[in-house]
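[Automated response] Your request has been received and processed.

Submitted sequence:
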Amino acid sequence: MFTREIGSGTPVVLLHGFGLDHRSLLPLEPMFERSGHWRRIYLDLPGATRSPAKKIGSSQEVADAVIEQILATVGKEPFAVLGNSFGGMIARYVAHELRSQVLGLATVAGVFIAAHAERTVPPRTVLRQEPRVVPILGAALDQYREDAVVESTGDAQAFLQYVLPGLDGADSQAIDRISESYSLDRNPEDAHPEPFMQPTLHITGRQDDVVGYSDAWSRIEHYPRASFAALDAAGHNILFEQAGLCSALVTDWLARIRQDS
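Generated structure:
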């Protein structure tokens, strides 16, 4: 599994969304630089640009492969884990399976209910369209607008730089295969029902019609040390549409981990 490491210090593993690659999380880099002393470990999940899926054919197999890769990378060293969208579901699995080694858990627009038909999501809403994104995005316009809630030229440029390369580089056959077995064997909170006591952060988008926000909030009692945030003017592209708030919340999460270490 392809691994990109940046910086030094306490390890934090970053897991991207479905059909993307690690570059979709690189907008968090300025925040990590300001926070200091974090060894960022970005993974390309199986089927992403630089990680062949081989025989992996389910989300459970992805999750197990991620744990194997993390342990091969950090050994017995304590680490934190952050996941976006599909990566959020995998991050929750990692955090519960390796609880004694995990310093903290964060999800950003994370998947909490795997089956799309069973999710509670708001209706599709576009709060602002920006005509100037059309010439910037060109042929990628429809892909950008699939999830965009608040359009801007900055978000459009970020999409081209950080998101589109992963979409183009994904192994479509592997992605289709995994999507057929998208659920984990058990939800992490059900498999490990004792409360998760490490510092936690769950960021959701109020207009996110892909994973919603209420499914994450339904787990609030499981996470006594969690900050939950439902951000307005944010859909599934929340890392771009509310970049400042996301960075501030992740910064706070890292500080809380430091205080507990």
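Summary generated for your ticket: The chain has one domain: 3-123+170-260. The chain has a mean pLDDT of 97.
If you did not submit this request, please reply to this message.
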